[in-house]
Amino acid sequence: MRPGHWAGRRTANPPFQPPAERRARPTRLLAENRSLVTAPGRFATPLSPPDKTGDSIRGEMERRQGKDTMTAADPNLSAGADQPEGATTLTGILFLLLATTIFPIQDVIIKSLSSEFAVHQIVFWRSVFALPIAAAMALYEGSLWPWKIGSWPLQLTRAVAAFSSYLVYYMALAAIGLAETAAITFSTPIFVTLLAAVFLGEKIGLWRWLAVFLGMAGVLVIVQPGASVFEPAALLALAAALFYAISIIATRRLGNRTNGGTMTLVTLLVYIVGGTVLGLVFSGLETASPHPSLAFLYRDWIAPAPMDWLALAALGVTSGIGFFALSQAYRMAEASVVTPFEYTYLPWAVLWGYLVFGVLPVMSTWIGLTLIVGSGLLILFRETMRGRRIVRRRGLGVMRQR
Length: 402
Prior knowledge:
Layout: H1 19-23, E1 28-31, E2 34-37, H2 53-73, H3 85-113, H4 119-141, H5 152-173, H6 178-185, H7 188-199, H8 206-223, H9 233-254, H10 260-282, H11 292-298, H12 306-332, H13 335-338, H14 345-357, H15 363-385, H16 389-394
Antiparallel strand pairs: 1-2
């Protein structure tokens, strides 16, 4: 080849260069809008290792892109990302403790109103007052609009099941104590385990079967079917746990096709419509049953007095703040960390039941409560050990039915 052969010639194929000369060329890498330039001659020695900088930066970019995708799919992962992990976990626990302090107050208000108002009227007004707060919460989280429905049949199944759970829970509360009602309802993880095996094809191992039998034993100890002290309203609390388990299964099927703001707003709208329909159905109907739960259902709507309006507005405020606290708790910390703190709801239920209504649980309730709590924690522990994302991120929380 004659000298100057490549001089002044433009071509897509550059002349041959020895490997050392090629490695001496500057390498420009683009990462996060910054140009990282390696100095000329950095790898000029023939025995130097090959340049891995490009691979490492590309890998880092791919990992960050993957993280961004996961965050967009599941907002729970994004909260507190710029804070130390320990600080956000502690904040999440504090938010959940706030929720467990507020929700028993809501139960006390509804039990106090159960002797005058119909349950569907309370559900209606509570949801009306809670709707603006829930909308503001969704706006704060960026999920107010557009709605992310995912599947209307699953959304409506979830909302109707949650509405049914809420309705029968407070019908039970009209007849039995706060602690008994709450303890039976905390058997929800048992029904979730059984329904997940039927509808989601999940396998139930030995430990989870043990937890199921342990929890059911606790329910039987509290309900005491066949005994002279048996209260039929306890079956309503058990039905509340079953309905909410159906709601959780529908939530699992929805997965990342929806978000918390959409689910909350759809559920509240179903509460409002459901309360209106039941009010029209049972309006004018009379029942001779002296049972408080049936009287709570069949009672006509009445015009609230000024103090009653304050109580109904307080229901909406407490539920809105409680839902916001729960949302923040599960956004800031792993569900497997904060879910066990939901059981702090039970001591508050016992305390308020004693302070307001002068009722303390009997020994059988304490024994059954211990068995149910142990069952729920065992199921949560086994689910977490198996690495199920639904438990790590959304948990098997019971209070979100409130």
